[in-house]
Amino acid sequence: MKTEFINLTPENLASEHLSCIIRTKIAHPGIEAKRLWLADRLKEGHVFRKLNEKATVFIEYAPCETAWVPIIGDNYYYLYCLWVDSAHKGKGYATSLMEYCIADAKEQGKSGICMLGAKKQKGWLSDQSFAKKFGFEVVDTTENGYELLALSFDGTMPKFASNAKRMEIENKELTIYFDRQCPFIDQYIQRIKNYCESNEVPVNWIHVDTLEKAKALPCVFNNWAVFYNGEFKTVNLIDAAYIKRILKK
């Protein structure tokens, strides 16, 4: 098994592969947006650790105090993403990355690690069944089935901010909150814009571009959140088929 992993740093950020989008030789705007976002986050203790090759094998986490999510977790790490693509599964990479995160948290004197999950696994969230093998457990929930999972080292527990459980807004139009944490966001924005313009569907885009905005969000959030008719729908990146379904309801 290849065991060489590297962490992104201010020095290597410009040259290293960011793992998520690897199927094009053309510069991808989502990747460059991610680099710019990470440039500021790395200064705050954000960690992006990856296999030292061009592969989608990485873990990404940050101190909860500076993580762009409406979660309260004093002295916790927030795990944004742990991803090993199908071509690299079965080699122990996910275990190595999770063990690194846990060891790092303990070395830094953290109280634990938390992550967003759901009663029904969401496609754009890390595998919570895998996390539970390391001792993660559900410590908070929302009425619509989202869960906060945590691995506590000292008995303290994180929680969703009260605003994150509101799950409603006044605007009835299709409304999408987003940040630049995920390289895929740029292409999904363009796809949705194209569909909405072609079908005369009004859409309200809200760029979450500060930590303060992220902490004050009216819903759970990992880097994306969708509302329609004033109600929260999903944290998943969505396509035209999904928009058609919710517009019919």
Written account of the structure:
The chain is α+β, with helices and mostly antiparallel strands. The mean pLDDT is 92. It starts with a strand and ends with a helix. The protein has helices spanning 29-41, 93-107, 128-132, 185-198, 211-215, 240-248, and strands spanning 5-7, 47-51, 57-63, 71-72, 76-84, 112-118, 137-141, 146-152, 159-160, 174-178, 203-207, 224-228, 231-234. The longest helix is centred in the middle third of the chain and has 15 residues, at 93-107. Strands 1-2-3-5-6-8-7 form a seven-stranded mixed beta sheet. Strands 11-10-12-13 form a four-stranded mixed beta sheet, covered by helices on one side. A hairpin with a 2-residue loop joins β12 and β13 (231-234). It has six helices and 13 strands.
Write out key terms for the chains shown.
249 residues; alpha+beta; seven-stranded mixed beta sheet; four-stranded mixed beta sheet; globular
Q: Which strand-content bin applies to the residues?
A: 25-35%
Q: Which structural class matches the secondary elements?
A: alpha+beta
Major β-sheet profile: 7 strands, mixed
- Give the spatial strand order of the biggest sheet: 1-2-3-5-6-8-7
The dominant shape is globular
Taken in chain order, the helices and strands follow as: EHEEEEHEHEEEEHEHEEH
Count of beta strands? 13
Alpha-carbon Rg, integer:
18 Å
Note the total helix count. 6
* Average pLDDT: 92
List low-pLDDT spans.
none
